[in-house]
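The protein record filed here:
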Amino acid sequence: MGDETTRPFRDHTMPNAAALFPDGLVTGAEFIGCRFGHRDWSSVSTATCRFVECDFTETAWNASVHDSSAFIHCRFRGTNLFAATFRDCKLTGSRFEEARWAAATLVRGDWSYTALRNVAWTGFDLTGVKLVEADLTGAHLERAILRDAHLERATLDGVKWAGADLRGANLTEVALAGIDWHGVRIDVSQALLLASSLGARLD
């Protein structure tokens, strides 16, 4: 069984995961202001855990699985997220700089107010993911599925998303003009919104 940790870890420099959770299962733990930099947390599974203002610089999170865990205002700089899974997680306010995303999976979840500049999410299924006010400047979203995603007030300057499917996505208050829409699949309401943003009269 996983470790049912109740006391929070505060302002700790964390060891490798195996030192605390030898079975690789972390349930209900809380980490506040902790430093995981350059540590090995690969293949760990978390459930209903809470990480607040933690630093994951160059942390190995590859092949990790996270269910209903929260990562609030955390920093992921150069973090290895290869084949990681985030299912119904909350990542609000977190920053991702040069994180490695290959083969990662995002299932729903709240990624609002995140810094995701130049994120490499080509071909990702982001159906229903909340990305309200996320900074997706220069993001690679080619062939991504963004159906019913929440992109309200997101920053999409320089986004690359040829072949992406945005049908049903909420684009409220997004600066649509100036974005390259070539090959992007949109629905009728989005097409009308785009036309209006370009100054067309809709009669």
About this structure: The mean pLDDT is 95. Helices lie at 17-20, 188-197.
